[in-house]
Amino acid sequence: MPVPFLIAGTDRIGLIQRRLAEKLATAAGIRMLPLPGRTERFTQSFQWHPLFAYDSAHKWLRAELAACAEELRPGARSAGGSPAGGVGDGNGIGLPAGHQLGLQAS
Length: 106
Hints:
Layout: H1 3-7, H2 18-28, E1 42-48, H3 56-71, E2 99-105
Parallel strand pairs: 1-2
């Protein structure tokens, strides 16, 4: 269950990505507040066993994840030709500033 629904109706707080919060805030009945400071950088990773390196379904999934990450890159164009909704000055393979997606076999 997403965090907004877990904290709804309580005196608790949750910290999630802005875009997810914007999509779920109304449905969950919560409000969004700015953070009192900066957040730390983090890396989002997808790792897999080398056995799956050549698996066609797994290769498809890795390609989809990389494509999604690229769409989040600031200034990237969406399929319709309009700018994608990235935030910050991206790095890695196109996630918002402070975010990276690492794709590697482990």
